[in-house]
Design a protein that fits this description.
Elements: H1 3-14, H2 17-31, E1 38-42, E2 48-53, H3 74-80, E3 92-97, H4 101-109, E4 114-119, H5 122-127, H6 140-157, H7 165-173, H8 175-183, H9 194-198, H10 202-217
Parallel strand pairs: 3-4
Antiparallel strand pairs: 1-2, 1-3
Helix pairs in contact: 2-6, 6-8, 6-10, 7-8, 8-10
């Protein structure tokens, strides 16, 4: 095992459980051809109590109660798996992406105590309506991973002959994310897990994360 691969395993094990699970759910959505977003709801002790991934573009049997509907965002599925009697004031809703206005409103309406997301909303960035300043990935690599999975899922689903505009825009606003996206094999991933998918690319991901840190601190 190379130094980079060993470094990945160390950092993956050190990451909070809900962060790892949210990324794993986003990877499941990506591998299934859906939109790569995952969300996990934790209790006051940080223990996952419900979860969901984006299933808005998937049909047939699935885990989410809203599967195949426009409401089937990852956060909505995680909240839909919560019970009415739970005290969500002490809960944290983790998401791989900044929640959209619908999901943010649902979290507020249900009284979720804290929302934590790993990466800025790519759609908001591409429209010039967001900066993602409140993203809280812990390790900067996880921000690039979350948005790279999102961009790849959009690129694969695109019907056009060229690349989708969201990816083109990211070449300017998030060049490190776009560079990592381009360094990965084309198409949907075939690895059994996000760990297997990311491990060989950890050195490159770390280099790009460091470059992003320098750029954003200027």
């Amino acid at each position: 095992m190379s130094h980079g691969e060993h470094g990945f395993d160390t950092e993956w094990r050190a990451a909070p459980e809900p962060l790892r699970r949210a990324l794993a759910l986003a990877y499941e959505a990506l591998a299934a051809g859906g939109l790569a977003v995952g969300a996990v709801l934790t209790d006051a002790d940080g223990k996952p109590v419900s979860e969901g991934r984006n299933e808005a573009y998937e049909e047939g049997p699935g885990a989410g109660p809203l599967r195949g509907t426009p409401l089937a965002h990852a956060e909505m599925n995680a909240l839909g798996a919560a019970r009415t009697g739970w005290d969500l004031g002490t809960a944290t809703l983790w998401s791989t992406q900044e929640p959209c206005s619908m999901c943010a409103a649902a979290a507020e309406f249900t009284g979720v105590g804290r929302v934590r997301y790993l990466a800025p909303d790519p759609w908001a960035l591409s429209s010039g309506n967001g900066a993602g300043g409140d993203a809280d990935p812990g390790l900067p690599q996880w921000l690039l991973v979350a948005n790279t999975m999102f961009l790849r899922s959009v690129a694969v689903a695109s019907d056009g002959s060229g690349e989708p505009s969201i990816l083109t825009h990211h070449r300017t606003v998030e060049p490190e994310t776009a560079a990592f996206h381009d360094s990965l094999p084309a198409g949907l991933p075939t690895a059994a897990s996000p760990e297997d998918w990311l491990r060989p690319h950890w050195t490159r991901l770390t280099e790009l994360s460091a470059a992003r840190e320098l750029r954003t601190l200027r």
